[in-house]
Amino acid sequence: MLIAGLFLGGVLFLAGATRGRGSGWGSAGVVTGLLGTAGTAMIAMHALITAALAQTETGPAAATMDALDSLGGWLILPLMTAQSLAITLFGLALWRSGTVHWWVPAATALVVVVALLPSAWSGPVSLGLALAAMGYACAAIVRRRAATGWAEVPTPAHRVWAGAACAVALLVLSVAKEVLFPGADDPDSAMTAAGSSPVPFVTEGLMALGIAVLFGGAAAFFAGAVRERGSGLAIAGTVLGCAGAVSIAAMGVLDFLTAALGASHAGSAVFGPLGAILFPAFMPLFLVENLMMVAFAAALWRAGTVSWAPLVLAAAFAVVGQIHPTGLVAVGQMLVGLVAVAWLAYGVLRAQGALAGVVRGRRASGIRTTTPAPTGGALG
């Protein structure tokens, strides 16, 4: 879980460093990095579920694990490949921008190749290559930023629009999930439903993983939208966003587990030991998911990008979220969040459009500017 959160933080850092030449490669790195974060969270949950199943009867536990691997195990390879591929894409982006030498993308390309080799040493070797290449790249980024006074070019327009779409799609998919899958308080009834057909639970799990990816993308979008006043709140929102994305992905795996328990007819006894493992750590993370929007809404209000109204809506969204609503209340909460997110995204797009007009005007007049904008940026 910790690795997943830190990896997402690294993706956001590298996204912010790939805005000029090579930004296309960097944008691809953001997408694959978000997918890779979800994959790492899935591996973490697989380990925790294994620990919980080990405390139940061996036969049903083994059958449940086999069912779980058949239902959701196919996601691990492409998502973990996406994680390695993200490092390669960021290496290419930084080389194209002139920040690093050619050997960095070459080394990061080897990360993907080595990670796919059927050897016990493939993992440690690929991680060593990634650490050497990206450690050097991060140092080069810091040196370059320090030499230029931490100036930044405006975020490419395609990232701004993609980030806004990502933020809105996050809540749209969340509303759809609450409408289609309102949830059940009785684990045994969920097992019975899963036994008749695991498809709804697998579908819900896939939707949850999609929400987790979009949640990380929304965090990247809003994190890049505040540069001066309100930046402290934006930093808090970024940290909350990294933790929240991992938490949502982990919770999505529980839908796959429900389907697996129904298929193996093992019953719901596993939820007892699993809850003892999960809930002490995850209760704070449930709060994190709701607070991220509040932090970013406050940051954008402090920056003068939006009025106080979306901040109030974000606060209402967070307060209702703490009662863990279900049914129509949950749908209503998500709709309030959708209005708040759309309002915030519009404010960022409007501010970014004004910035783009200023930059175009200065370029047309032959004035070169290196001063970073107070509110311009998304997806890093």
Give structural notes.
The structure is a single chain. The protein is mostly helical. It has one domain (2-98, 151-364). 78% of the residues lie in helices and 0% in strands. It has 13 helices and no strands. It has helices spanning 2-16, 23-53, 58-72, 76-96, 103-115, 122-147, 157-180, 187-196, 199-223, 231-264, 271-302, 309-321, 327-364. Helix 4 (76-96) runs antiparallel to helix 5 (103-115) and helix 12 (309-321) packs antiparallel against helix 13. It is flat, with a radius of gyration of 22 Å. The chain starts with a helix and ends in a 16-residue tail after the last helix.
Characteristic terms for this protein:
78% helix; mainly alpha; 380 residues; 13 helices; 0% strand; flat
Q: How do the SSEs run, as a string of H and E?
A: HHHHHHHHHHHHH
- Which word captures the global form? flat
**Main sheet summary:** none
> Which regions are unreliable across 5 or more consecutive residues at pLDDT < 50?
367-378
Q: Total number of β-strand segments?
A: 0
Radius of gyration: 22 Å
In total, how many domains does the architecture comprise? 1
Please, how many helices? 13
Name the helicity range: over 70%
The mean pLDDT is 83
- Give the N-to-C terminal Cα separation: 22 Å
